[in-house]
């Protein structure tokens, strides 16, 4: 039996939808392990990872508004709630990313979705996966690294999220926006989560999505916890053990709803509902060394002060 525990917390106008998926979503790759042991171990897995403090930042501090400026670029708009970390920031046509040179993939990618970005004439058949030449050759993934590995070149910012511009869709095919994903997971459960994120743009004023890899510890036979992950190709591209998505959902009255998901990088039964992968945002912050909530609280508090002043 699988159980999902979820709750909705409202703090100073910030609505946190959190949940803990206990069951197949959190089980390790060895299905023959004792289920009770696996569930007990995984239930507290994320909580054992220490917090790595990273200063928060608000986008308005980095990109000042210019007089007469009518509209922000899509990438600038994605920075509305600041950055989860500050290292190796890169901007593309319609997303912002923090690159991890050691693992040869992004630490996170932030994008904004709305009906305007999801529809257009762009076609992925005109796109090709390509090296990111802005990354030093020592720290860059190549297409050859993925060849024959059995892993998909899994988008972090999905191509289908950026149909409004062929250039924007092309930019999602940089290998710096890609990580090795289990093909069954990528093409099924993960694809369903991406579709779900797009569907939310019909119900919210703005949908901001932050996606990234996780490398989570697990208990070994000696009773100790280890972080182990595969690397592929000549450049040792890291294969994440899990992936996360943090959704920042803006409502018409300025309220912000937050949802966070973690999905293991392994074959997943499509019948498992997406709600099973909901986790507390604090779990992702502890496991990744990133911080989301301080930025969101800072932004919403500033907006609230402006509104009250008006």
Keywords:
310 residues, two-stranded antiparallel sheet, Extracellular Endonuclease, Chain A, single chain
Please characterize this protein's 3D structure:
With 310 residues, the chain is of the alpha+beta class. It has a single domain, classed as 3-Layer(aba) Sandwich (Extracellular Endonuclease, Chain A). The chain is built from ten helices and 14 strands. The chain has helices spanning 35-43, 59-62, 74-77, 115-118, 143-146, 166-171, 183-187, 189-199, 281-288, 293-309, and strands at 3-11, 14-22, 89-91, 95-100, 105-113, 152-155, 178-181, 206-214, 218-219, 225-226, 231-232, 237-238, 242-250, 256-264. An eight-stranded mixed sheet has the order 1-2-14-13-8-5-4-3, with helices on both faces. The longest helix has 17 residues, at 293-309.
User: Mean pLDDT score, rounded?
Assistant: 80
Q: Quick one: overall form?
A: globular
Number of strands: 14
Q: Structural class, from helix and strand content?
A: alpha+beta
Share in helix: 10-25%
Low-confidence spans:
1-12, 18-71
CATH class categorisation: Alpha Beta
The spatial strand order of the largest sheet comes to 1-2-14-13-8-5-4-3
Assign the CATH topology: Extracellular Endonuclease, Chain A
| N-to-C SSE string, H for helix and E for strand | EEHHHEEEHHEHEHHEEEEEEEHH
Q: How many individual domains?
A: 1
Give the CATH H-level superfamily: Extracellular Endonuclease, subunit A
Oligomeric composition of the shown chains: single chain
What's the story with the biggest beta sheet?
Answer: 8 strands, mixed
Any idea what the radius of gyration is?
Answer: 19 Å
């Amino acid at each position: 039996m699988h159980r999902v525990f979820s709750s909705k917390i409202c703090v100073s106008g910030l609505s946190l939808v959190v949940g803990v998926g206990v069951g197949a979503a959190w089980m390790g790759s060895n299905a023959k392990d004792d289920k009770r042991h696996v569930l007990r171990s995984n239930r507290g897995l994320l909580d054992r990872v220490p917090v790595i403090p990273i200063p928060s930042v608000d986008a308005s501090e980095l990109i000042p508004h210019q007089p007469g400026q009518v509209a922000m670029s899509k990438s600038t708009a994605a920075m509305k709630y600041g950055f989860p970390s500050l290292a190796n920031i890169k901007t593309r046509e319609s997303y912002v990313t923090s690159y991890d040179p050691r693992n040869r993939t992004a630490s996170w990618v932030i994008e904004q979705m709305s009906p305007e970005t999801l529809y257009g004439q762009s076609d992925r058949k005109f796109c090709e996966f390509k090296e990111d030449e802005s990354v030093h050759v020592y720290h860059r993934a190549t297409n050859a690294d993925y060849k024959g590995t059995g892993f998909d070149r899994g988008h972090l910012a999905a191509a289908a999220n950026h149909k409004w511009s062929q250039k924007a869709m092309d930019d999602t095919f940089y290998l710096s926006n890609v990580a090795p994903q289990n093909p069954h997971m990528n093409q099924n459960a993960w694809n369903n989560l991406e579709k779900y994120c797009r569907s939310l743009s019909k119900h919210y004023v703005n949908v901001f999505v932050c996606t990234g890899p996780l490398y989570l510890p697990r208990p070994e036979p000696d009773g100790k916890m280890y972080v182990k992950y595969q690397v592929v190709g000549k450049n040792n591209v890291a294969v994440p053990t899990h992936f996360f998505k943090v959704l920042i959902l803006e409502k018409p009255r300025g309220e912000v709803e937050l949802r966070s998901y973690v999905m293991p990088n392994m074959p997943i039964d499509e019948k498992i509902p997406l709600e099973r992968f909901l986790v507390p945002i604090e779990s992702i912050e502890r496991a990744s060394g990133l911080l989301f909530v301080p930025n969101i609280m800072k932004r919403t508090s500033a907006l609230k002060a402006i509104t009250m002043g008006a």
